[in-house]
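Data card: per-record layout.
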Amino acid sequence: QVQLVESGGGSVQAGGSLRLSCATSGLTFSSATMGWFRQAPGKDREFVATISWSASTTDYADSVKGRFTISRDNVKNTVYLQMNSLKPEDTAVYYCTAVGTSLPSRTPETYYYWGQGTQVTVSS
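The structure for this 124-residue chain is written out next.
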């Protein structure tokens, strides 16, 4: 059974930083494309970042480019999202997601597995 468990969310002031982690199990992590999405209240789920199995390819939403960094540790079976210079509009539930074999994608339908989400709240 595949499990994705996010951690690291919390409350921070604008300009601050947080690092989200997503620990996985039951997944061939070293060959999986991983992603982060977010959903704010009353809004659709939106793409944040994705990383290929080898970490050779990453992609970011324009709204987070230059502020967020996705990375992975194929020994620890964990993907990370380092979030710097946070803004109030980054407030959302952040979801970790995975797919076995796929090119990195911005489309949520690409991904098979989803975590339960972790809340990030940025105050002004």
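Known properties of this structure: DSSP finds no helices and eleven strands in the chain. The longest strand covers residues 18-25.

See the next section for split statistics.
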